[in-house]
Amino acid sequence: MKQQLPENQRQRCEVWTRVMGYHRPVSAFNLGKQSEHKERQHFSEQTMTKHCSQ
User: Fold this and answer.
1) What is the pLDDT of residues 22-53, one digit of tens each?
2) CB 16 within 8 Å of CB 26
């Protein structure tokens, strides 16, 4: 069972992503870029390694 913190103890998590060779916070993107970021397919290195070795 997961426990949740009370609302007054929570804090926002800043999400960063790599864009054109450098890292930027997603919150700094314009609305179009934020929408594009939500549609991206995310993967983990382990998943890719497993699929590439077959």
Assistant:
1) 899 999 999 998 898 888 877 777 755 566 65
2) yes
